[in-house]
Specification:
This protein is of the alpha+beta class. Helix 3 packs across helix 5 and helix 6 packs across helix 7. The protein is rod-shaped and about 190 Å long. It starts with a helix and ends with a helix. About 10% of the residues are buried.
Length: about 290
């Protein structure tokens, strides 16, 4: 082999070695450099980088990734079967650890799926179905995220968020549960209605009693006032009679004449010398004189 051929071979080898020694890291990626499968260093910065020709590059995503969990069947503590559709968002924070435990993003997502599935069943299996529908749902999600993160960090990922998109009852159970809930609501409504009627009767009876007591007190006070008035009238008449007995007798007789002789259909037959007309007789004698 002549010198030109040797030079050409060496030149081509240098070119190939130089090309294989240069690589770029995209802004969305992070790179792990390995030597015959053994991790050597992590390159998180984007840009142009160099390596030895025999070294390899493993590229991992540095963005926030999503994991849609297949629909899980969970049995709640009240023995209700639930179909739970959940998802998680995670990020690779330790490329070396992820490579050593999961190889790549797909392997990390698979391991996370297993963790999320088991923790969903453990947490939701300890609560009642109504709790999942209440305001405690956010607390449950936070608890699941914390549990998953404790294990997920061991293979280099951080779980940013865990959410339940939907939690439904199986179709076979939905109508039966709806009927039972409807019956419970009807029973509660009937109980509330009965308690309301009982309270209304009690309030009405209390009002009637108060009215009766008030009327009785008013009548008692009226009788007292009437009795005091009658006593005062009797006293006034007695005082007046004591001052001028003749005038008092005359006055009472005039009142009797007025009532007895008022216009009407009543007819009286009396003797002229009756004691009733004694004042009329006196007046007549005085008039004749």
């Amino acid at each position: 082999m002549n010198k030109s051929a040797v030079f050409l071979v060496v030149f081509l080898a240098l070119i190939l070695g130089g090309v294989s020694s240069v690589f770029t890291v995209h802004e969305t990626r992070q790179v792990l450099v390995t030597e015959f499968g053994k991790p050597k260093r992590v390159i998180p910065e984007a840009g142009l980088h160099f390596k030895l020709p025999w070294e390899s590059v493993v590229s991992l995503d540095r963005r926030i990734l999503s994991l849609d969990l297949p629909v899980q069947e969970v049995i709640a503590s009240d023995q209700k079967r639930l179909l739970v559709d959940a998802f998680a968002r995670f990020k690779i924070i330790d490329p070396l650890l992820t490579y050593q435990t999961s190889t790549n993003e797909i392997g990390a997502a698979g391991r996370l799926q297993t963790l999320l599935s088991s923790n969903l069943k453990n947490v939701l299996g300890g609560i009642e179905f109504t709790t999942l529908l209440s305001g405690q749902r956010a607390e449950l999600m936070a608890s699941i995220q914390e549990r998953v993160n404790l294990e997920a960090r061991t293979f280099g990922i951080d779980v940013i968020d865990v959410r339940i998109k939907r939690a439904d009852l199986p179709a076979a159970n939905s109508q039966a549960i709806f009927d039972r809930m409807n019956a419970e609501r009807r029973r509660d409504a009937q109980q509330a209605r009965s308690e309301g009627q009982e309270q209304a009767i009690r309030i009405r009876a209390e009002a009637d009693r108060n009215v009766t007591v008030t009327i009785a007190k008013a009548e008692q006070e009226a009788q007292t006032i009437r009795g005091e008035g009658d006593a005062l009238a009797v006293k006034i008449f007695a005082d007046a009679f004591g001052k001028d007995a003749d005038f008092f007798e005359f006055y009472r007789s005039m009142q009797a004449y007025e009532k007895a002789m008022s216009p009407g259909d009543t007819t009286m037959v009396m003797s002229p010398d009756s004691q009733f007309f004694k004042f009329l007789g006196v007046m007549d004698k005085k008039g004749n004189n």
